[in-house]
Amino acid sequence: MKNLVFLVVDHLPRQQRGGSMADQEEPKKEVRVFGRPELASKVAMFQKKAEEHDRRQKDNPFSARWDGAASAAMSKDDPRYGHPEEGSKTDKRGKQAGNLISSEVRVLCENLHEFGVELPDGTRAITFGELFQLYTSISNKVVGILLRARKHGLVDFEGEMLYQRRDDGVVIRLLRPIADIHREMGYDPALAQLPKSTPVLLSGKKE
Q1: Domain assignment of residue 34, yes or no
Q2: For residue 108, what is the domain's CATH number?
Q3: Contact 110, 116 (CB under 8 A)
Q4: Number of domains in the chain
Q5: pLDDT, mean of residues 1-25
Q6: Contact by Cβ (8 Å): 11, 27
Q7: Are 58 and 66 in contact (CB under 8 A)?
């Protein structure tokens, strides 16, 4: 005879009316499982995730379940202020976007270092027209990448914005040695140029 599994649902006492919307919600249900201990642990884990999701929704001002009274105020001096919660999907997407931007800025600086002309002060420079022609086969976002690189103090040029043809003669300078830029970004060119391992069959012969 197969083991029977019983689910017992207990209604928690209803909270008093009045106060925030969260206080007037339906009472939570506590699920207790009899007959299979492993299933009970899974149910408990699911309940924990559901409660954590509910807490995040109450702290999220864009959620219909937001509870301003329950949401803890965060000081502007807190390093987490203005940033998504650590480990959330928004946090992961932000980090991925940040990595992509860093990669694009690094490639820009590498091109300035390789194709630019060395100046007496040790910096390198290239005109916007030359850089634009170089980037037609690399990226169509060269102006945006230049603006980000200038914001981080890596390059410099005159004007708030650059336009093709009109600003072809504007000189763009790489302000820092490429080795320093690589070091700051945690990028090692030697590791990036290592050949990929050749797949080997079980027989020992190469594919």
Answers
A1: yes
A2: 1.10.10.1540
A3: no
A4: 2
A5: 49
A6: yes
A7: yes
